[in-house]
Each structure stands twice: as C-alpha cells, then as structure tokens.
Input
Amino acid sequence: MIGILGGTFDPIHYGHLRTALDVQQHLGLEQIRLIPLRDPPHRTQPTLSAAQRLALLHAAVDDNPLFHIDTRELERSGKSYTLETLQSLRRELPEETFCLLLGSDAFNGFHTWHRPEAILGLAHLVVMQRPGEPEPARYHEQLTHDPEALKRQAAGLVLALPVTQLEISATRIRELLRHGQSPRYLLPDAVLELIRRRRLYPSG
Output
C-alpha cells in the first residue's frame, strides 16, 4: 500500500511529516508520496512558486527513503484535482492499493471535492485524527476500525487513525518569518536553512 499526502507545502513542516510517518508505521505502508499542488481548488494560491516549494520538500525528505516526492500535479496545467492524480497513479500502478491521507478538517469538506465518490473508487481514505476527536461524521457505511481491512479491499474504505498531536500550521510559520521571528523546531532545520539562505518569506 502507498500513502498519498497532497498539499501546498508552503512550507513543509513537522505537522505534515510526523503525522504521515505515524500512518506509515501504523499501516506498514511501502512509502508516502508527497504530492505538492500546483493550483489548489479549495484554498488561496501558495506564497512560494512551485519550484521553491519543491526545493523545500527535497530539503525535508531526501534523506528518508520512505518519503517520495511526486511532481505530477506541478507538471499538469489547471486545477490540481485529486481524482485526476489518482487516475494517473492507477494507470501507472494498476495493482497497487492507495491510501489518501487527510486531516479531519479536510475530510469534513471531502464531500465538496470534485467527484468524491469517484475518488473513493480509487483509494481508501485515512483520516488523521488528533487524540480525542470524534470519529468521522460522514461516510458511515464505508467506515472501518480495522486497518487490516484496507489490505483486503482495493479501495472505498474510510479509516480514522489517531496521530501525534502537533498544532503546527504553515500559516503560523509564515507569520513568524514575516515578523522576523524564528520558527525553529516547527519544521526541519534543513528547510529553515534553505528558507533563510534564499530569503523566502521575507520579513516586512
């Protein structure tokens, strides 16, 4: 099974990386594919360019073989729709099982995504929950509490999985940098060093 984690990664931080690693270890995923979005349908445009965000991703994960950076959405024009990405992955890896990793907030809005039922036809959803959060309020028929079920079925299940509680956001990191403050310990040192060296997110 392969985990799919999409996002603007503006910038990548431990809130992305630690929770993805939690899922990988709990489910025994072969790898986590980090897929940076070019043009996100549900949020504002990223602050940094695609090339800049990609460089930060490489700084964060190039030393970890469990993480793989997948650039297909950066190379595709138009909106970055998850369905098109999964369709592309399915064509390349027809026998693979995909697990789409979502935070609780993203999952709560999943029904508004482009063709959500078609997405469930191609992948399982793994909802990364903070400790104490209630179980998902939607898709009860697809909900499972058995991680092994994801291995017995090609797609279509929703698994809620508690992950490390890290209240880290890219927005907060950008605010700290803009105010000349340090976001150290919120993101990998290699990412912070590259941000500083290239003067990304300059203070104002």
